[in-house]
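Researcher: Let's run the pair from yesterday's discussion. Sequence first, then tokens, for each.
Model: Starting with the first of the pair.
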Amino acid sequence: MPGTIEQKLEDLGISLPNSPAPSANYIPFVITGSLVFISGQISIEKGLLIEGKIGKELNVDTGKRAAKACALNLISHLKNACAGDLNRVIRVVKLGGFVNATSDFTAAPQVINGASDVFVEIFGETGRHARFAVSVASLPSGAAVEIDGIFEIA
């Protein structure tokens, strides 16, 4: 029924950010068949970069907040891919999560839960997905987290 996801966003007090522009030579998303592949989104929240290394300057809770910011940026692009209608989302298929962390940091899955939780909160069972979560030595612009996604749409 029309407006369902928009209503859910409103009920949750979530307003989607403007879709961040690509920072290099790529496009934000590609649609092939019924799949949307969205390029990696870094942890930009309210126009400001959440940057730093988790396990050093940042803790897991800040990492989860950074992952949530990535998720909202992904959803903003997904909305564009769906011509403004998020009710077209059939399935959140897969997320790929990269965590800028110290070499001994082992809680990347807990950090990426910050994004996974958002997708389930907004899309319900449709939001449950496959994923990976890995720690890396660095990310673009020093971002704390970067996440990409694959989605099925009608």
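Model: Moving on to the second of the pair.
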Amino acid sequence: MRLAIISDLHIGYERFSDDALLQARRALEAAHADADAVLIPGDIFDNRTPKPEVIASAMRLFREFSGMEWTAKPAEAGEPGARAPIVVIPGTHERRAQDIENPVSLLSIAGFVVDASNRRATLEKDGEKVSIFGIAGVSEERFGEILSKLNPEPEPGAFNILMFHQSLYELLPFSDTFLRMDMLPKGFDLYVCGHIHGRVEKKLHGSDFLIPGSTVLTQLKEGEQEGKGFYIYDTSSRTFSFRYIDSRKFVLIKEDASNRSALDVRHAIEEKVKGIASSSNSKPIIRVEITGKLREGSVNLELQPKRIAEELKDTAIVEIGSKIDAEEIGKDAEAQELRSGKLKDMSIKDYGMELFLENLRKKGYTLSIKPSDLFEVLAQEGSSRDKAISEAIALLYSSFPSASESMESS
């Protein structure tokens, strides 16, 4: 069976919303032309509570592909009976509190996809069976607990895949709470992971381990400069190849300003941006990182990063960061760590979660409410500060026994 592995579509990503939907469509179109089935290990949506128009655009997209003819069939379908062998799990961007519907589950309820969240889904073609055990994206602190509870095991007589959506310590050695690859159970024929936006090919327990990366630019990190696409995996030959899709070009420029004038640096940036744009079919995305110390006496304000980006907006989408920006923001150690690049492909949200958990640990947090659930309430999109605090207080209050229960226990 030929499987397309597509991840992190991020439909609804506001900054490049058109790119996200268009490039998701291109990936699915190419997959339908060359694969028997599709696996999507999380983050179909960019937001756990997407706007109605975002949900509608995703539903139209997946409805279209669910109506096409596929050679493989889902043996275990979605709630009303999915016809298309598109097997998915929710990612960390779609994560909501336990037992609350997320946007991926809506696609499953509509019958467009097979939701393999924390269970096994099976595909069949010409007598061949592919068994996919999915683990939905959860906070890093909970993954070990969920893994132990689910205890996924290979299904006899099938090609077995473990599909999940988490940070990996081997790729992001930032927090001890991150999953170590060797924690994953042995015996699976293929391991598929989402969440990380750069492409990764490794071996785990003697089997292939693949991360296809995202289909749209979101983080503008060094690892995203390679073109976007997806994997085709052949279960018979156990071989795979990466298929590129037509996607917006991204280039990271590192400009050393050491002992140069601000105007010289500015002109160099402008020339490089125009040169990259001239060789691109569509308007490229360019991130410029300025390092080093300008020549003594040079006026920092002559760089004017925002003005450079504005003047070049018809040529490219330009984002400029520099040491000057860091000095203006301040010397806070955590902010400096964010700007230093140590986080690599880690998202700001994941980093915020780690800081939140670390602070709770230092203060001896012992309540029954999981810290990750508390963080999700405080960090929910579209919520005012007062509303988020009120909901957090209500959540914390629910962990205490009521007055009557206290009296009974006494």
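Researcher: Give me one sentence on the second I can quote.
Model: The longest strand covers residues 128-135.
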